[in-house]
């Protein structure tokens, strides 16, 4: 059995803690068994490792998330990188093509697809393992996992069984209902319907046949080149709802989708994260990443979140509606974690004549460096406020420490390497202050150092 871990989403319903560059699965708001902070992706990887499935897994992930995945789980993690987000069907198809033409597994091999953001017990992964045997025994094309509902809710989709009197460890699927109203959800539960956990298992040749029928490549390199033209559609709509032979394995343990504030806060170990006070309040959580104190006074059943990307004060039950509102907000990410560290936008000013100024605070971890790069639309001023490091500037390597100031003009090729943890105030000045205004030449500091010592680069 092989595993595809779906990790390409950004989690808009957890705004403003998440943004286009900071996905929900990487935010450390949970605690592990030792009481240390961990992210959703670290939690599920720990559980997969314990179940023996980790060495069989590959992550399907967006290209802007690969450095964060390696930072949290290590450099050896296998991943299939989506050139752009196109929903779950293209992501699963790309990973299947990887197994087919890169790992060259048997077409009869079973593939299990698991999202990375649910909160589940370890026994959940035992059920995932069992889908391989259930597919063989049932003759089905797809095996799903459905959780026994704890209560009627409009937040989840439901799997409707044909009957529930079998003793085979699985039920034949009759149909699906996506996020029904409360009354209908209660009726579905009475009919033994299950919450849809978003897990799919199938033989590789099942999906390869679908790709061939749609005249899509089954070779990984070819499908990667074709990716921008794939339909932007979910695996549920493109495959599941068009498949007749489907079974579901009931899961009796706890299962919770952590994709909204009302569900995530139920699993958060602290009521307050960051500088803040909750007083005279009931069932309130506060997360503050700003440098100013936040007071939540007299609230009830609410979540208060303050980050560089925005401020949210919401009733927990209404928090799943956040997505429809933030789609109206056009703003670049104000905080992002990278493989080398992090940055936070402190101020961004747009003048009437098109000139812009952006002030950033950068943290570069000891031993890390940014790429050797240049910009064409902006100049930068770096002020080192903490730590020691080395700067490569137009082929010359210079030592820097707290108090050092460097002027980087348009076209200057530059990089910085942290000897100890570095903090920098960066002031960008120019006409187009976007991440795309970067031409990168080298990535590893040893390569940069060798090239710059040998001759003046570029």
TrEMBL record:
<dbReference type="InterPro" id="IPR029044">
    <property type="entry name" value="Nucleotide-diphossugar_trans"/>
</dbReference>
<feature type="domain" description="Mannose-6-phosphate isomerase type II C-terminal">
    <location>
        <begin position="338"/>
        <end position="441"/>
    </location>
</feature>
<keyword id="KW-0808">Transferase</keyword>
<dbReference type="Pfam" id="PF00483">
    <property type="entry name" value="NTP_transferase"/>
</dbReference>
<keyword id="KW-0548">Nucleotidyltransferase</keyword>
<dbReference type="InterPro" id="IPR051161">
    <property type="entry name" value="Mannose-6P_isomerase_type2"/>
</dbReference>
<dbReference type="Pfam" id="PF01050">
    <property type="entry name" value="MannoseP_isomer"/>
</dbReference>
<dbReference type="InterPro" id="IPR014710">
    <property type="entry name" value="RmlC-like_jellyroll"/>
</dbReference>
<dbReference type="InterPro" id="IPR001538">
    <property type="entry name" value="Man6P_isomerase-2_C"/>
</dbReference>
<dbReference type="GO" id="GO:0009298">
    <property type="term" value="P:GDP-mannose biosynthetic process"/>
</dbReference>
<dbReference type="GO" id="GO:0005976">
    <property type="term" value="P:polysaccharide metabolic process"/>
</dbReference>
<dbReference type="InterPro" id="IPR011051">
    <property type="entry name" value="RmlC_Cupin_sf"/>
</dbReference>
<protein>
    <submittedName>
        <fullName>Mannose-1-phosphate guanylyltransferase</fullName>
    </submittedName>
</protein>
<dbReference type="InterPro" id="IPR005835">
    <property type="entry name" value="NTP_transferase_dom"/>
</dbReference>
<feature type="domain" description="Nucleotidyl transferase">
    <location>
        <begin position="3"/>
        <end position="268"/>
    </location>
</feature>
<dbReference type="GO" id="GO:0004475">
    <property type="term" value="F:mannose-1-phosphate guanylyltransferase (GTP) activity"/>
</dbReference>
């Amino acid at each position: 059995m092989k595993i595809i871990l779906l990790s390409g989403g950004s989690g808009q319903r957890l705004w403003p803690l998440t943004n286009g560059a900071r996905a929900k699965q990487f935010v450390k708001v949970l605690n592990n068994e030792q009481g240390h902070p961990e992210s959703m992706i670290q939690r599920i990887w720990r559980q997969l490792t314990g179940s023996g499935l980790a060495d069989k897994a590959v992550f399907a992930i967006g290209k802007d998330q690969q450095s964060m995945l390696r930072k949290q789980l290590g450099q050896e993690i296998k991943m299939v990188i989506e050139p752009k987000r196109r929903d779950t069907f293209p992501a699963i198809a790309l990973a299947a093509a990887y197994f087919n033409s890169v790992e060259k597994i048997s077409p009869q091999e079973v593939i299990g697809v698991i999202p990375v953001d649910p909160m589940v017990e370890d026994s959940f992964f035992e059920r995932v393992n069992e889908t391989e045997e259930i597919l063989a025994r049932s003759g089905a094309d797809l095996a799903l996992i459905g959780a026994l509902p704890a209560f009627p809710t409009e937040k989840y989709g439901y799997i409707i069984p044909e009957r529930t009197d079998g003793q085979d460890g699985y039920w034949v699927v009759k149909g699906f209902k996506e996020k029904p109203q409360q009354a209908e959800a209660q009726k579905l539960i009475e009919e033994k319907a299950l919450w849809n956990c978003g897990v799919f298992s199938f033989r590789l040749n099942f999906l390869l046949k679908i790709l061939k029928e749609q005249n899509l490549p089954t070779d990984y390199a070819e499908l990667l080149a074709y990716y921008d033209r794939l339909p932007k559609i979910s695996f549920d709509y493109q495959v599941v709802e068009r498949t007749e032979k489907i079974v579901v394995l009931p899961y009796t343990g706890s299962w919770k989708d952590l994709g909204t504030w009302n569900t995530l806060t139920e699993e958060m170990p602290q009521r307050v994260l960051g500088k803040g006070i909750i007083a005279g309040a009931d069932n309130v959580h506060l997360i503050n990443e700003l440098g100013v104190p936040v007071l939540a006074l007299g609230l009830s059943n609410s979540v208060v979140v303050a980050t560089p990307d925005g401020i949210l004060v919401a009733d927990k039950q209404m928090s799943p509606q956040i997505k429809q509102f933030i789609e109206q907000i056009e703003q670049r990410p104000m905080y992002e974690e990278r493989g080398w560290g992090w940055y936070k936008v402190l101020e961004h000013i747009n003048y009437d004549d098109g000139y812009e100024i952006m002030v950033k605070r950068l943290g570069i971890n000891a031993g890390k460096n940014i790429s050797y790069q240049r910009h064409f639309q902006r100049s930068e001023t770096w002020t080192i406020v903490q730590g020691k490091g080395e700067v490569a500037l137009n082929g010359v390597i210079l030592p820097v420490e707290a108090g050092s100031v460097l002027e980087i003009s348009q076209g200057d090729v530059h990089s910085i390497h942290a000897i100890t943890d570095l903090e920098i105030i960066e002031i960008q000045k120019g006409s187009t202050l976007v991440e795309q205004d970067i031409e990168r030449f080298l990535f590893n500091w040893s390569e940069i150092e060798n090239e710059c010592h040998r001759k003046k680069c570029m």
